[in-house]
Amino acid sequence: MTNHLHQDNVRFTFDCPLELHTMVKMKAASLKQSLRDYFIGLLAKDLTENPTQFLDNKHFKKELKRILEEDEKLMKKLADR
């Protein structure tokens, strides 16, 4: 029997500061939600309130480069803690 709940799903895996994880876990528990459901709700809410702006290829590459540079700086700050 095929489990249909896992079809068309993608797994997110990322590192998170321990204090932030603890606070998010407590927030989700207070709402009687799993972390999974809490994050899906946050993502859906953000996408609804802040619709994606589509970029042409040139602008996409420029924006991706900017995001990766910012991410690299953030990861360095977190690693230095």
Could you explain how this protein is built, in words?
The protein contains 3 helices and no strands. With 81 residues, the protein is an all-alpha fold. The protein has 2 domains: 36 residues; 29 residues. The chain is extended.
Brief write-up:
With 81 residues, this protein is mainly α. Helices cover 64% and strands 0% of the residues.
When the domains are counted, the total is: 2
SS class: mainly alpha
Strand content: under 5%
Gyration radius over CA = 17 Å
How many individual β-strands? 0
Measured as a percent range, the helix fraction is: 55-70%
Largest sheet: none
Mean pLDDT: 86
Compressed to H and E, one letter per element, the order equals HHH
- Unreliable spans: none
Number of helices: 3
Distance between the termini: 47 Å
Shape: extended
List the helices and strands and how they pair.
Elements: H1 18-30, H2 35-49, H3 57-80
Keywords for this entry:
extended; single chain; 3 helices; 81 residues; mainly alpha; 2 domains
